[in-house]
Amino acid sequence: MLLAPEITPNAYTTPLRRLLGPGPSDISTRVLQALAKPTIGYLDPSFVGMMEELKALLRYAFQTKNALTFPVSGPGSAGMEMCFVNMVDRGDKVIVCRNGVFGNRMVENVERCGGQAIIVDDVWGQAVDLNKVEEAFKQYPDAKVLAFVHAETSTGALSDARALCALAQRYGALTIVDAVTSLGGVPVLADEWGADAIYSGSQKCLSCTPGLSPITFSDRVVAKVQARPQKSQSWFLDLNLLLGYWGETTRTYHHTAPTNSLYALHEALLALQQEGLEQAWARHKSNHEALKAGLAVLDIRYVVEETSRLPQLNSIYIPQGLDDKLVRTAMLQEHGIEIGAGLGALAGKIWRIGLMGYSSRVENVVACLAALESVLISQGYACQAGQAVAAAYQSYAQQSLS
């Protein structure tokens, strides 16, 4: 007899949630509907046409004219690995800025490529220190690449990508930029910065289904990859092979593309273009200001200083005496709201409230603050119901007058 699981038909139902953690974010109805379009072949002329539109929309999101701009079939981690396996050769020195969890993943990638990671450490919650990076370049002038996280998801810190890219150019190095949490939420200006490789994720400020990594490469990277004396250590992520699938004139089979997910990304990027990048950045900033006003009333402090704080990823210290897991569990089970826990050294010390993409809406800010007030009061925290929500509304009113 064949083994079969004992599962009641239709037993699983998806709960309704407000996704206000570090990702994924809420997905709009129009993007969900795009996922349900009929699947067609990935070499179908109609699909090829959609791919060209998708590349153009991504160029808009990244603010670049880079020909090699496309979505990697995999999450942001795949985009990260694609950059390193194509841009780092054995023995290369790579300066890696580490101010959170994801900088450390960059170090792992350098080492697995056989490169030498020159680590520039900063305190978690602080932006990358430009002076430290310049000192590293002075000490290692033969460094081939500078890698850094633009928006550190584990802390909510935003680093100065423009200045870091300019520094790398001054020393003749290429750049790898992690924009997983920043693309669509704050300015990402690939051409203005002179960035060489930027990767992101579909599930953050783009509010698409998880599993795709938008990426863009400069002509300098393409030239380096095409001139490599040896193959990339990864077959699946080898840019030389993918050029034949995502190139301007060719469509050579490489792998089975995630057709329906690409439909969804196309729709999410179309929504971003219709809203306008500057309007999207302003919306994220507006909702952040309202959330910040409400948290201030609750006497909850931010991890990151205001000058380098991400509006779409709010890292806040857990007030003394409160149980991290109990609060997050109550938010989820009683109010249907997901907020994120701290990672690494900040585990159990902070919460991360995401207002990314379609999740960055007035009703979500209000719902989050109301639920947080309710849960904190039930845990014996000294605050008055309604004050945080009132402060958020006051913030919106002041913004509309300015």
TrEMBL record:
Highest rank taxon of the organism: Bacteria
Gene Ontology MF terms in the entry: alanine-glyoxylate transaminase activity; L-serine-pyruvate transaminase activity
Binding site for substrate: R352
Cofactor (UniProt): pyridoxal 5'-phosphate
N6-(pyridoxal phosphate)lysine sites (modified residues): K204
SUPFAM superfamilies, alphabetized: PLP-dependent transferases
Short name of one Pfam family: Aminotran_5
Sorted UniProt keywords: Aminotransferase, Pyridoxal phosphate, Transferase
One of the GO biological process terms: glycine biosynthetic process, by transamination of glyoxylate
The keyword ATP-binding appears for this protein: no
Record bears the keyword Transferase: yes
Domain Aminotransferase class V intervals: 50-344
Family: Belongs to the class-V pyridoxal-phosphate-dependent aminotransferase family.
Protein name: Alanine-glyoxylate aminotransferase
Species the sequence originates in: Agitococcus lubricus
